[in-house]
Structures
1.
Amino acid sequence: MMKVYVDHAATTPLDIDAFNAMKPFLLNDFGNASQQYSFARTAKAALKAARVTIAKCINAEPEEIYFTSGGTESDNWAIKSTAFAFGNHRAIITSQIEHHAILRSCHAVERMGIPVFYLPVDSSGVVQPDILSEYIDDSTKMVSIMYANNEIGTIQPIKKLCEITHSKGALFHTDAVQAVGHIPIDVKELDIDMLSASAHKFNGPKGIGFLYIKKGTQIAPYADGGAQEFGMRAGTENIASIVAMAVALEKNCNRMKSVSDHLIGLEKLMTSLLKKAELDFIKNGSPKKIPGNISLSFKNAEGEMLLHRLDLMGISVSTGSACDSKNTQISHVLEAVHVSENYAKGTIRISLGYENTEEEIFYIVQSLMKILKR
Ligand code: PLP
């Protein structure tokens, strides 16, 4: 049986160069980068170099990159530490389709008395700038809108949303976990204040990521303790993973165009094969989306059943719905884009990576046909 991994929006395989770059720091050069003696210099130099490499990939300054344990921590930091930082403005605006790392951080600050507004999206998952203009006012402290959605891939009009936010003197954060390393990002050009990223989404190791914080942004530290990360996020640095993250990100940025072309080609092939097979489905998301993130809703199917049947055929995908004994629960994203129930329940997300092949696409479609036409 073929083994086909097509859940890259959940996590990606570790790049071999990134893996090799980690090894010396796990074995020989294990020094603590905060120490003064010469043995720690290799770790300290590697930390500095990784910060420079990562900053270059998003056109930031090295001192604007703060290493974290991943996307969830970066999102928690951005939301909570901005909410409780200085100033009279308090309200936060986000969208209904954010990842739970943002939504649940927002719920936490709401419980502490901070007002949060959750913007609706249109049927393709886009936050309309006009809607933000309607909600934003002088009480808004921060707007946090994800760069690209993890379930349907939709890319947001970040520059426009950021402009509107700044016109009211508020800060703009974006959860770019699904975007960094996949599409070009220039933080200076976009003029955003904060950006979250996670290495395991771009072929780096798990449990490492970063938060970009524009110089001068008022935000409280995430963790108090040692002086690491410019005194903003204490704790001995995970040098091996940081180094690997830099290698993976630089490599992904260098091959972005060719990988993207490859994924778009595979996606076109899959869509045309599904249409030829005369399966009744809709494709969710907007035309402007992360290459290879394919959300499909099959009429009168059960997403969880599809996931398990595909799993038995060696194919790993995600679903947009979960069953309990009585009901099928549709994800908050599919609800927000108003996919009708008879389609939404049968949603799967196929997210492709550079190592996927045409042969695998044929196999996935054949497998879907076997399951759905039975
Ligand atoms: N934000 C988005 C959009 C994501 O897709 C994810 C992971 O799926 C996260 C945040 C959380 O990232 P991490 O797994 O690094 O904590």
2.
Amino acid sequence: MITVAVANQKGGVGKTTTAINIATALAATGWKVLLVDLDPQGNASTGMGVGSADREQSSYDMLIDGAGIGECATPSRIPGLDIVPATVDLSGAEVELVNVDDRTGRLREALSQDAGHDICLIDCPPSLGLLTLNALTAADTLLVPLQCEFFALEGLSQLLQTVERVQERFNPDLGILGIVLTMFDRRNRLTDQVSDDVRSCLGDLVFESVIPRNVRLSEAPSHGLPALVYDHTCVGSKAYMALARELIGRLPERRKAA
Ligand code: ATP
Ligand code: MG
């Protein structure tokens, strides 16, 4: 299984929207996909239509109680896409993990027992705390949604420093899959400026596909559906499908079964 952490400590930049729609696009092309909601806000769970009554076993149980994926993953409405939901308990996990052995390796341990999925996407919370560190330690590679606004590059350098720290201490093989520009608004001059800056600083690390600001993308979660299912013809869905194609081309070779 290839594990991809979708992370950026900045809030509201499109992590969850990206995780949900890339997971859906990959499932639609025949991959067996696992989406792990690692954010106490539970937006990925709600956005996938998993109500609070259906969250008996969650990412909290994987991190704190050592529960396996088999117990925590539930099928979503999308064929081929399973989800490990999040509950509010997870907000306490940051504190509870402090006194636990191998506190950054808990998720890696839980995910290492998976046998049935080709790819796992982890939707991270907007922080660089222990939850995100668990995701970065468990991941093969990192996908960073970036909103084109004034402080974007500053936040990014902080994230990349954290990646270096994780590579040194916990996960030497952690790669960076790429940076995707989200909520792109061509009418806004600042968007263009920031996008030029990001591309000149980071070059090929930035995906060519750009996700436009699109109302349909923001409506979909309230229907408990990925935008790709809610309206596959909208510009936002098309952009996510293009991103998924580009992303598949960048994924590390699937690991051969032992
Ligand atoms: P958080 O840091 O709180 O987890 P996030 O980084 O996961 O946030 P999202 O929840 O994906 O960000 O997006 C934030 C808000 O913006 C949501 O209401 C979402 O529906 C909306 N949104 C995301 N992407 C787009 C887009 N391309 N166009 C319009 N609205 C969008
Ligand atoms: Mg989110």
